[in-house]
Amino acid sequence: MKGILERALREINACSELSALENCRVKYLGKKGELTVFLRGMGNLSPEERPVIGRLVNEAKEEIETLLLCQKERVLKLERERSLKEEEIDITIPGKRFARGKRHPLTKTLDEIKSIFLGLGFTVVEGPEVELAYYNFTALNIPENHPARDVQDTFYITEDIVLRTLTSPDEPRVMEKTKPPIRVLIPGRVYRADDVDATHSPVFHQIEGLVVDEGITLGDLKGTFDLFVKKLYGEHMETKFRPSHFPFTEPSAEIDATCFVCEGKGCRVCKDTGWIELSGAGMSHPKVLERCGIDTTRYSGFAFGMGLDRLTMLKYGIDDMRLLFENDVRFLEQF
User: Fold this and answer.
1) In whole angstroms, what separates CA 210 from the centre of its chain?
2) Dihedral of CA 295/298/299/300: which sign?
3) In which band, very low, low, confident or very high, does the pLDDT at 330 lie, cut at 50, 70 and 90?
4) What's the pTM value of the predicted model, to 2 decimals?
5) ∠ CA 108-111-114 to the nearest 5 degrees?
6) What integer pLDDT is reported at residue 271 of this predicted model?
7) Domain that holds residue 9
8) How far apart are the first and last CA of the chain?
9) pLDDT band per the 50, 70, 90 thresholds, residue 147
10) Closest CA to 181 of 121, 127, 224, 119
11) Nearest to residue 120, comparing CAs of 184, 208, 186, 173?
12) Do residue 65 and residue 206 come from a single domain?
């Protein structure tokens, strides 16, 4: 019995894993273990020897069980320490950097333009992209025989419903619901039947501006646009007006700005003129104001429209409009 106990104690103390401890328990205390087999052989002992041997076996069994329990606690502690050491976090190691999205160049430019006009007291409004032909044409003083109404230029859903060809339809919508003074900026997508190339797309973006109040003159339009261009592109920028014609403004003008490439000296981009076209604008046509219920003897206004895509291309030196719509990550990562 003494030899079994010594051997059991030696083997248990040598165990460093729970599986090895379980094997020791089965070897000595299991149904076929050495102590169990020893107890079964006690029938061959004399009546005087049985109590003595039985006590020794029970004492040995208790000692082995106690040692198994203590060794199990030690093994579990060692395993926890080993696990903590293996899972230890070194806070000095740089973390993994996850790729973060960026604002699209169109969004960046639009946000900057909004900020400029909000600082001038404008309110940003949006209108429907699926528009009534009345607001897209008639309310803007565009006659029935105007080329802009042709199916070659406009996407018709029905005879009276179109995909808006410009953001100007929101001007009469605002004026019908709002009494002067009015200062609104209207950004949004517009649609025209154009082929896709480096400077054209059937889907693009415009920004409309409208001011209606007492005593508004062409000088207010010039001052507003001068300030806008300088804020967006730099204090060195200048603007000039060229006479033009739009059905919804009178007088009308094309607004040019100093060429971004040559700074007015003349180059291939500006066709050696030193100027880049930025906007169509003018004083709100009296017929447009009157159709919206505004007293033209008291109020006047100005309006302007700009291509957000063009403004973005000029700001960031992008030479192909298609890059703004293709979502090539290699291109977008540059902004």
Assistant:
1) 30
2) positive
3) confident
4) 0.69
5) 150
6) 84
7) 2-86
8) 83
9) confident
10) 121
11) 184
12) no
